[in-house]
Amino acid sequence: MPMATAAGHRCYELWDPMPDEVREGARRFAAVQALNELVGVLQYVEWLDRAPSHTRRQMLMAKIQDEVGHGHVVARVAEDLGMPRERILLDYLEGRTKIHNIFHYSFATWEEVGPGLLLTNSAAITQFQSLAKGVYLPYARALRKVEREESFHYQHALDLTHEILTHGDAEQRRRVQEGFELWLPRILAYLGPPDTDTLHTNRMWQVGLKPDGNDEVRQAWLNKIIPVVRKLGLHVDPALVRQAPSGEWEFEMPDWAQVKKVIANGGPSSQRRLDWVRRALDRNAPYRRALQGVA
Amino acid sequence: MPHIPTDSDVYEVFAQSGHGTALNHVGSIVSPRPDAAWHLAKETYGRRDDLVKLWVVRRTDMIVSSADDRGLLAAKTRMPYRQPGFPTARRRDRSASPPAVAAPREGRDSGLTERRDDAREPGLTDLWLALADDLFVLGNRLGEHIVDYIDLEEALAVGSIGQEALAHAGTILVLCGFDQPAADARFFDRAQAQWQVSRVVERLTDWPSLVAGGLVIAAAVAVLAEQTAEAAQTAGAEQTAGAEPGAAWLPAITAIRDEQLVHLDHWRRWARALAAWPETRTEFARAYAEVTERAGDMFGARPQSPAQGVPAGAAPAGPALAVTLHERLAALVGENGGPGSRLPDGPGTRTWGVGGSALADSLSRGRTVRDEYAPGVFS
């Protein structure tokens, strides 16, 4: 039996009668994730044709395809709940929805890609593991498929980072370290504002779609990733993140006003992302219609 | 090939026995009437467990795989690099072996610009090496189109076709005797003047021309694979040593052919759609004409000098072979159902250094990271 039932919630399948709040919440969760998968992948796409070996290019292309695949499975969940897939990108272009803070940035160097991927993938896995305990079962199943593929992305990111740290020169290794320090605070922010005191008033927690609070997920992530990062040979500056004697992780609190500004398309690559999506949708509209029209 | 079964009174039954689990196929029933099928299924498969779901679908409404689709379905075998264990094993193997003593980067910087051997006739390996170049460029272009938002399912298909094109390019080099560093040097470090891509490559720009180019390249690879398989079978084992394709090539070449035939079908469906739809008809006709009129050089590779594992003394392919291959290509391309092909009547030859800005950009982007690192860092 799924944990959501154990937590005292009823679970729902697509055609089950369910409270409007669950249906709308699940639709929103799935649509938000679909958007973030589909637009978030662009920061990796920008590096695909610079991936420096045949095998690396294959792995990166597989990862990019997987991310679009994740966008697809959760978009299908949202579609079944009444959100047409076309609207997912349109809502973004027309300002009704926003992408996560981390996707408003680009990687400036190849050395930044490895730690950026590693932190992003591991945080996403932790978050999906939590959301997969939710009460809307088609979404939970979609997340389990996603998690399985994310474990390849995670291993790929480790490999990419390790390659430079082991075989690169001092300057290149320094840039990996800088990349880690640049992305760590962004991912801490990505996991959301502190909510331990308010979680029980969050309707999504109450109905069972958000099984864990942001703080819980963030701690679980740090527990997992910091030892990995250390083992890779990166330095974890206590000013950024440190473990209290209680075992709890402490970190410099993100500037939430600044994070909010970034999310409101105020980040360095926000416009670039919007432009890419707009141009692609415009350019390809006739081909999309041909595909549908002739089918 | 996947097929649609014919027994119209058979229904396949799927049941879910616990929350959160997936539906499982539990068996089938025969029901003369559709409206009775679900109840009959319940009496057959729902007598013991508390089922959460019971789904029944008429067999003739399904598209099911056939036994010969097994190879295409073997994703782990076909794409090992996307398993979590792949990067892990790679890292382990690399730290276990002493650091590679990197060969100096050949090509561009080393003055090794001449690897031409126009004196002899091209062999099958020469034709394969040239097609590997085309596949490598095509694979990269398709990779960019995974996020072109044409359609989500389409994006995933394009991603697989692109990865398979890259994989086939790599496999061809392995068959020709290249190891991984040599293959990377060939794809990443050669100057454009040392590439012998088809002139189709310079036209791989927008989506309609990628459809046309994908179609033509898939057809050419399938044709050459068929020819190679025939040659390998008739040649027998004694001619395989280091020279032209022999029996050792067969499994890989057969797999490449099967996958490229799937790609060909995919591009044909697109070609038909773009040719039939009023909004895209003219644009596609132009792209298709421009791509096919450049495609006469598919089997027109010039011999490459016997460096880098290209076997010496390869049996000549000869003009007669090029004509045969070209005819087979014309037959495959002609069946696409789209507008007129402008494939030339006879085969043409390839030229060193073509590919235009499409290849130039791809090569220079591919070097940006690689050039900043010491040789041998990336594998």
Automatic annotation (TrEMBL), chain A:
The domain of life for this entry's organism is: Bacteria
Per UniProt, what is one Pfam family of this protein? PaaA_PaaC
The signal peptide here is none
Q: Which InterPro entries match?
A: Aromatic_CoA_ox/epox (IPR052703), Ferritin-like (IPR012347), Ferritin-like_SF (IPR009078), PaaA_PaaC (IPR007814)
SUPFAM superfamilies this protein is in? Ferritin-like
What protein does this entry describe? Phenylacetic acid degradation protein PaaA/phenylacetate-CoA oxygenase, PaaG subunit
**Source species:** Microbispora amethystogenes
Q: What are the leading ranks of the lineage? A: Bacteria, Bacillati, Actinomycetota, Actinomycetes, Streptosporangiales
UniProtKB/TrEMBL annotation, chain B:
List, alphabetically, the Pfam families matched: PaaA_PaaC (PF05138), PaaB (PF06243)
Gene3D superfamilies hit by this protein: 1.20.1260.10, Phenylacetic acid degradation B (3.10.20.520)
For this protein, the record's InterPro entries field holds: Ferritin-like, PaaA_PaaC, PaaB, PaaB_sf
Basic and acidic residues bias (residue ranges): 105-118
Segments of this protein annotated with the region Disordered = 82-118
The protein, known as: Phenylacetic acid degradation protein
Organism of origin? Microbispora amethystogenes
